[in-house]
Amino acid sequence: MNKLFIHETAIVDDGAKIGSGSKIWHFCHIMATAHIGMNCVLGQNVFVGNKAILGNNVKVQNNVSVYEGVVCEDDVFLGPSMVFTNVINPRSAVNRKEEFKKTLVKKGATIGANATIVCGTTLGEYCFIGAGAVITKDVKPFALMAGVPARQKGWVSRSGAILGDNLVCPETGEKYILADGFLKPL
After folding, report:
1. φ, ψ dihedrals at 116, nearest 5°
2. What are the distances in angstroms from CA 129 to CA 42, 55, 66, 92, 157?
3. pLDDT value at 1 more than 90
4. Taking all residues of the chain, what is their mean pLDDT, rounded to a whole number?
5. In this structure, are residues 118 and 136 in contact, taking their beta carbons and an 8 Å threshold?
6. pTM across the whole model
7. Among 30-34, 57-61, 84-88, 118-122, whose mean pLDDT is lowest?
8. Is 153 left (phi over 0), alpha (psi -120 to 50) or beta?
9. For residue 160, which of 148, 172, 175, 177 has the smallest C-alpha distance?
10. Which of 16, 92, 105, 162 is 20 to 30 Å apart from 168, CA to CA?
11. Are 48 and 69 in contact (CB under 8 A)?
């Protein structure tokens, strides 16, 4: 069984749940009601807020904050300095903690470096959010998204390879089909 590793500079509040095999690196802060699954890796300076959930095998790169209301399913990749939000219209002088919006990142999704995910959105299974993209709406499974605001530029396979017109993964040979505007593995 893999052991949990927590670097001596990390702060893990009493009550936080962290699965076996996970690694929590320098200067992280895990709040008391956060839940982190097994075999996760949190790079330097990662914050995981109360009620935030990370599934199993989630990779969180340096300088990422996972706020209350964010759920990342298994096998999610969060790139360096990417950003989640949890309030649509924040104001310093207005308390909107009762207005936090949920954000769901489905199994196998990748979010590139410096991307921003506006709260209240769902990112579909195995979607790929390009570096610096700003997500303002729900993302379809396997969609390749880029730009500000982000637009769909194509499709990716489960392994993250860009699919051509034949919808066959160039890395694995896995075949996909497009039905009713959604991509599905055969």
Report:
1. -120, 130
2. 19, 19, 17, 29, 13
3. no
4. 97
5. yes
6. 0.97
7. 84-88
8. alpha
9. 172
10. 105
11. no
pLDDT tens for residues 88-108? 999 999 998 888 899 999 999
Cβ within 8 Å of residue 95, ≥6 positions away: none
Note whether 111 and 75 are within 8 A (CB): no
Could you tell me how many helices (H) and strands (E) the chain has, helices first? 0, 24
Q: Per the structure block, which two tokens stand in for 48?
A: 């995981």
**CA dist., res. 114 & res. 60, Å (int):** 13
DSSP 159-181: TSPBP-TT-B-TTT--BEEEETT
Give the pair of three-digit tokens for residue 130: 């390009």
Q: Tokens 């360096």 label which residue?
A: 80
125-183 residue pLDDT tens: 999 999 999 999 999 999 999 999 999 999 999 999 999 999 999 999 999 999 999 99
